[in-house]
């Protein structure tokens, strides 16, 4: 009898298994579920849950929970794959099938990787048997239970500081005061205090009201209104207003303000559209990002990498386990060749003028200063600039937001040494030959119609050689020299000096330019000879273009970042011969040291300089009177270690380049006598 029962049981079991094998398999369902999970399609995941699992939470709650956690941990590169065995797993006593799956993802606290189990249950739906996922809280993270929460802590990396050659901070990590209101501390209805605060901060009262009416605000909460500098003179007055308080917060500080504003740039909170593009690089919504200047250029080096901690806590906020942990890696500092003593000195010399200046060591190529005048206070931007303040800067006719040292301008007579060098190198200019030139105006012939080349000052001698032409800055001599050189050789010669190509430098500059297309007539070629026409140079390249006259013909490459043992790096070798370099340098000495020279006044005692002045007239057509930009390039003769180039706009009523010369000379005097370069 027992034997018959056993045979009957085996037969029934065979029928059951055979019946199961004909039904739907769980493999496709688990694969699809994992695929939706990996793609973060949480709504579709929910639709694949068993009826019992759906009772744990609604579809909306399910999707929001996953989204909040994955967004909070900054989940990236998510990989979720089921481990499908060769043979279908056996059902348990309840008919559930268990699979293993693997999870990999990158998070703000580092990579997370684990294996876990998931159960599948078969149930009838629409008169058909289908497989569904038996979900529980451990599917979010292993070990999680109902009532547990995922807590995320970001460990902010400190931003690397930007330092000058002597360790002075151009952009540093400091503190600011966040002005705010605790609603329950306002007297009465608070209108009087809010009105006083609005006036002190230069904002509308509505800004304060909107902040206080935010959904998260409670009577005892501190509500931030505006962040100001620690040393802001308004702070004492503001804190006397009833109900107003402040909190110290970390922020980026720019101690030199306007003097280095275009060099440093500034940081600001990252925008939503930027975060969308940069999230994969570890940026978070609370991060700042470099907007302009060095802050932007060295962003990757300066910003460092945030760390983080992801924990599972119970309902009492007791930690159950750490899911992932990563230490923050602080950003690296950037130490520059810039000398802020010199930078600020140049800025102060330019005072309220509009212009730009650069300073280099002409032997090593170290860039010692890059100045733009006027500047702006980058702290305003880092702390959150008001719209009204930004509009003031934008509408200012002096354009303080325009970074002039990155742009090009007609260099005027400071280009004449380059013309002279090209003429000597092409044998189109005999330096000793005296050219007979009389009067203040000259034209090649009547075909020039109303086109004339005009001398800025009357040259006392009719016979002019190269040295006299540089001393007196004779436009006619250099116009004739350019015509003798010719368009092709003029452009080719300029390109040996670095024109029409990218300067080998960290920051972006507009290229100095002189092309064949620019020189479309004889008159334009003549104008090019004395730095007018369409020849354009940026202020840094102008200074670099004089280095062949100091370095036996080699054009030095500019270096912004400080090196322990700086060695010269050559941008272009043998731009001119040593003989040409010596001859032009000798003439540049006389431009400044000879009483006849355009760069002589005011004489400077104790420091012997060489250099060249220049006045570039800006006009749209022949015959009209235009605005003038004044230029001066100078370097110390004995063991040259400082070369300054300066341009100031609108000097037509200030004496042209003679307005610029004293400013450069005062900088040499102050810098080299009171603080020698080190």
Automatic annotation (TrEMBL):
Residues 1-20 form the signal peptide. Gene3D superfamilies: DD-peptidase/beta-lactamase superfamily, NTF2-like, domain 1, Penicillin-binding protein 2a (Domain 2), Penicillin-binding protein 2a, domain 3. SUPFAM superfamilies: beta-lactamase/transpeptidase-like, NTF2-like, Penicillin binding protein dimerisation domain. Residues 355-667 form the Penicillin-binding protein transpeptidase domain. Its main location: membrane. Keywords: Membrane, Signal. Belongs to the transpeptidase family. This is Penicillin-binding transpeptidase domain-containing protein. The lineage of its organism: Bacteria, Bacillati, Bacillota, Bacilli, Bacillales.
């Amino acid at each position: 009898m027992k034997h018959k029962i056993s045979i009957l049981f085996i037969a029934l079991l065979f029928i059951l298994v055979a019946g199961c094998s004909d039904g739907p398999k769980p493999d496709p369902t688990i694969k699809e579920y994992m695929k939706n999970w990996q793609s973060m399609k949480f709504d579709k995941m929910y639709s694949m849950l068993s009826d019992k699992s759906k009772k744990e939470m609604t579809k909306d709650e399910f999707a929001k929970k996953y989204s909040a956690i994955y967004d909070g941990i900054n989940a990236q590169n998510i990989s979720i794959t089921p481990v499908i065995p060769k043979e279908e797993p056996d059902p348990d006593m309840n008919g559930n099938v268990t699979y293993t799956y693997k999870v990999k993802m990158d998070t703000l606290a580092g990579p997370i990787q684990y294996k876990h189990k998931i159960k599948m249950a078969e149930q009838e739906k629409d008169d058909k048997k289908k497989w569904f996922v038996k979900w529980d809280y451990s599917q979010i993270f292993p070990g999680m239970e109902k009532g547990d929460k995922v807590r995320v802590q970001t460990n902010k990396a400190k931003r690397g500081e930007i330092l000058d050659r002597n360790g002075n901070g151009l952009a540093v990590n400091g503190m600011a005061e966040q002005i705010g209101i605790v609603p329950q501390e306002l007297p009465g209805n608070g209108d009087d205090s809010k009105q006083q605060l609005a006036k002190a901060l230069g904002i509308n009262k509505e800004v304060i009201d909107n902040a206080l009416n935010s959904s998260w605000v409670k009577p005892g909460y501190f509500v931030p209104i505006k962040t100001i500098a620690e040393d802001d003179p308004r702070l004492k007055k503001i804190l006397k207003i009833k109900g107003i308080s402040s909190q110290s917060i970390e922020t980026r500080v720019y101690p030199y303000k306007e003097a280095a504003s275009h060099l440093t740039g500034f940081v600001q909170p990252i925008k939503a559209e930027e975060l969308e593009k940069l999230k994969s690089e570890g940026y978070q919504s609370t991060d700042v990002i470099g907007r302009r200047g060095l802050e932007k250029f060295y962003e990757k080096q300066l910003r460092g990498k945030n760390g983080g901690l992801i924990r599972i806590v119970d309902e009492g906020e007791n930690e159950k386990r750490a899911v992932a942990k990563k230490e923050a890696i602080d950003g690296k500092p950037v130490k520059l060749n810039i000398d802020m003593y010199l930078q600020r000195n140049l800025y102060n010399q330019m005072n309220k003028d509009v212009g730009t200046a650069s300073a280099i060591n002409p032997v090593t190529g170290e860039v010692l200063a890059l100045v733009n005048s006027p500047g702006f206070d980058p702290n305003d931007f880092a702390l959150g600039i008001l719209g009204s303040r930004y509009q003031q800067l934008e509408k200012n006719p002096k354009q303080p937001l325009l970074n002039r040292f990155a742009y090009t301008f007609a260099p005027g007579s400071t280009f004449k040494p380059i013309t002279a060098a090209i003429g000597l190198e092409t044998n189109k200019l005999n330096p000793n030959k005296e050219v007979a030139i009389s009067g203040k105006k000259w034209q090649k012939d009547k075909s020039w119609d109303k086109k004339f080349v005009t001398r800025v000052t009357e040259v006392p001698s009719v016979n002019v050689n190269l040295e006299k032409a540089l001393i007196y800055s004779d436009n006619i001599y250099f116009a004739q020299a350019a015509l003798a050189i010719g368009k092709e050789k003029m452009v080719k010669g300029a390109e040996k000096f670095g024109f029409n190509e990218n300067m080998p430098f960290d920051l972006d500059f507009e290229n100095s330019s002189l092309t064949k297309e620019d020189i479309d007539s004889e008159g334009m070629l003549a104008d090019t000879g004395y730095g007018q026409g369409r020849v354009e140079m940026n202020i840094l390249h102008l200074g670099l273009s004089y280095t062949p006259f100091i370095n036996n013909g080699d054009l030095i490459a500019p270096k912004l970042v400080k090196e322990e043992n700086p060695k010269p790096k050559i941008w272009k070798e043998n731009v001119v011969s040593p003989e040409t370099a010596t001859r032009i340098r000798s003439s540049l000495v006389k431009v400044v040291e000879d009483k006849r020279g355009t760069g002589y006044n005011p004489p400077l005692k104790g420091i012997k300089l060489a250099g060249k002045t220049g006045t570039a007239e800006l006009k749209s057509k022949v015959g009209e009177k235009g605005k003038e930009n004044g230029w001066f390039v100078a370097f110390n003769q004995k063991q040259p270690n400082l070369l300054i180039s300066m341009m100031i706009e609108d000097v037509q009523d200030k004496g042209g380049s003679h307005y610029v010369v004293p400013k450069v000379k005062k900088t040499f005097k102050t810098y080299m006598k009171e603080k020698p370069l080190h």
